[in-house]
Input
Amino acid sequence: MREFKGKVDQSGDGLVSSPVLKTPTTQLNKIVGDSALLPVHITSANTVSIVKWIFHPRKGEANDLGRFSDGKWVRWNTSDSFGQRLDTADGSTLKISNLVLKDSGVYKAHVTFSTGVTETHTFGLAVYEPVLEPQITPELISRTPDGCNVTLQCQASGQGDLHVSWKRGNPLRALDESPGWYQLSDNGEDLHLFWHRNASDANITCLVSNLVDQKNISVNLLSLCPAEGKGPLARFPISSIGLSLLNAFVDEVEWKFTPTGGQPLLVAEFAQGELRRPHPNDSFGPRVEMVEGTTLKMKDLTMADSGVMDVRVRFASSAIVEYSFNLVVHEPVPPPQINHQIISSSANQCNVTLHCRTSGMSDLHFSWENGNPLRTSEALDWYRLTNGDKDLHLSWRPNTSNSTFTCLVSNSVDQKNISFDVFNICQDEARDECSCFSWVRTTMVVGLALQVATIILLNVLERKAEEMRKELSSESIVVAAESAPDAGREQPPLERAEAARPCGCSRLAALRVAVRAAAARTGCLHPAATDSSQ
Output
């Protein structure tokens, strides 16, 4: 609901003048280095005269940023903390680039209409530091036949209010979705839990976030509490693969690897507490090692490491247990690029196509998100995805708050993204169109002025020539009468005038006829006017 305010006339008649409409405050949360758009949504049909922007920092006095009027953005003080980081889109949206922490505060746009009514639009901007990478300090408290009591401490550093939470498994899910006891400290940074060795979700993840950013780090509990019950490790990190086995009364273990489309190869044997490599010069080379006597670790994975690892475990009781691990190694996603194409642009709307491209890989998933923090593009008035979601066709309005669009490219193990801000290209296009229109209009005005000047000049020359011809004609008649050699033969007055006319006047008449004919050919003078003047 809008609040109506006004100023009371000091004369005491009780009349209210200069009405002011105040809109609800719009809150924006941004990260350092990002851009913020403050759009003024004007609902009145009246003409806007002035849009004036005022900044109220959290500490200090208010700062008059500038105003937009008569189609121009005027900054009062370009040496303030904002410098060249302020810009406007059509006068209704203020853009702040390369945000810093002290940009946090309240921004007010005072919109004055031609009717004298003023609207005040208020924006609250909070700028946050990006969340730093957290660290997990694990501590094994005790072991039991069923599992381990563990304490994990998540160390989060940085400025501002940080929220710490914990998840388990992959994909992430809540701690209470799996059996087992756990307890969190008051600040949420310390997690005490009992982990069952036969549980499949050995990954525990700490998430640290503020209102605009989030970072996480995971720890595998197998590194603290090696499996001694049933079941192998279900999920593996990409950098190193751990194959955990039963450790109680194990007599011998064999690891046999079958690459995709290849023949089986005996990779390693574990017996009498030692690891033996029957073929040390195979494709794995020195990248295979034993960890804690229960895990075969493979480092520096390559695409050729994809395949099936079959493990055969023989116990002292002659019992045999077999395990099978299916390992798929993926290439990292290459950094994507965004190319843009402006379809059309106007003062109120910009139609753009964004093309997201990568090189050299297939089986990639493409998606698009908008703003910061990222969210789906469903907030747009209109958009469409084509070419396997690689191309985003969108209609963007300059008075919207988010002009950044992010392309996310991922496979099963990796993700890359790149962002593109359509604000600048749409604003530049609108300026180019305005500049082109002004040039064409100026050319037309200059051309019309030249035509009018030519017509006026020709008319003046015509009158001057006519006056000169009459004057010379009368003088030549008098001279001819006084000095005629043949008194018996009298020439006609017109012939005597033509004979006595100076050559300069004849040249002027010829020039006049040529100029008028040229003007008639170019459309500046109607041909009939030329004929009538001769």
Observations:
- Residues 438-533 form one domain.
